[in-house]
Amino acid sequence: MLFGKNKNKFYFNPGNRDTGVDENYVQEEVSKIDEDDVEVVLKNEENIDKKFSGSNGLSKYMELGRIMMSMLKDVKKGEYKNIPWFTIATIVLALLYVLNPMDIIPDFIPGIGYIDDIAVLSIGVGWIESDLHRYLDWRLEHEKGI
């Protein structure tokens, strides 16, 4: 198993915020994510990056996508460990949604086509924010050779 034994553990902690999201629904959707979905995201890194690269206003989301993609790669290589499956699945779900051109608001609609992509990415980041911060801290330490 590529991502270790954490797959069956469910970690959902949106903090003190009321997200209005049914946790049972989220758990059900997360349980549908498998390693093939992770591979689809990793193989489409360039397409996901291109989606947000067209606008300066989306650069923040492009950087978040790159961080999430980097986390997936480091987990796959076995360099970054002890990450809950929920975090991996959340990243995969968010990036698969971004990759899909025909979502709730089709991307070809000028001006508003990316609103739903940004919303899904933002909600996902909100759910896994502490894991992203731990990853970034780890990456800084890893790059320094500490």
From TrEMBL:
One of its GO terms (cellular component) is endomembrane system. InterPro entries: DUF1232. It is found in: Endomembrane system. It holds the Pfam family DUF1232. It comes from the Bacteria. Keywords: Membrane, Transmembrane, Transmembrane helix. Residues 88-122 form the DUF1232 domain. The chain crosses the membrane at residues 83-102. It is a multi-pass membrane protein. This is DUF1232 domain-containing protein.
